[in-house]
Amino acid sequence: MTKEKLRKSFLNRRTLLTEKEYEYLNSQLLAQVIRFNFCDYNYLHCFLPIIKNKEPNTFSIIDFLRTTYPNLYIVISRTNFSTLSLKHYIFNKKTILSNNNFGIPEPIDGEICSSDYIDIILIPLLTFDQHGHRIGYGKGIYDRFLTECRPNAVKVGLSLFEGIEHIDETNSFDQRLDYCITPTQIVQFSITSSK
Asked: Which of 54, 58, 76, 185 holds its CA 20 to 30 A away from the CA of 25?
């Protein structure tokens, strides 16, 4: 199946979730996130969800991280869609959010954070495969952002669904995940997996 067909299929699958199913999957996802050890990290980048699109509810994840890892800086972004780039900000109690035209909550202003400070990234996706490849919305914004981060920055996908066996259309620009967290498991990808 092509990337575009997979993208449409998983977008449709999310759309068809009932509110009860969506809440349940998010609670199970949070339970798996709680199992992940964030002790070795100082700056964690996290996407903020488009709730109407039933993306993983990272607000509950951020609340957990703030409580459990008080010394961990949470970083969020504002998107420049004309350059397909992200500008990063420290997310704290003073941060004011506003939804952009796509419904993504973004910081209005705040303390800027350089991408080379970030040592772990929670990444949005529609699906992923057993080699750590992911399918996002197709703009390549996160692939570009990940190339700006340190090579040893840990890339963690968040998915409400389990992955698929193989994504056929991959290229050298695609950034592989180190982990993917789903409502049932934490998947760690081997660094020797084929591209």
From this structure: 76
CA 23 to chain CA mean position, Å: 18
Spell out the domains of the chain, with CATH numbers in brackets.
3-188 (3.40.50.10420)
| pLDDT band, residue 168 (cuts 50/70/90) | confident
Which residues 6+ apart lie within 8 Å of 64 measured at CB? Answer: 30, 33, 34
User: CA dist 168 to 2, 97, 150, 160, Å?
Assistant: 7, 37, 27, 21
Contact 1, 9 (CB under 8 A): yes
pTM: 0.93
Whole-number Å distance between alpha carbons of 79 and 85: 6
d(CA 10, CA 125): 10
Burial class from Cβ neighbours inside 10 Å (0-12, 13-18, 19+) for residue 194 reads exposed
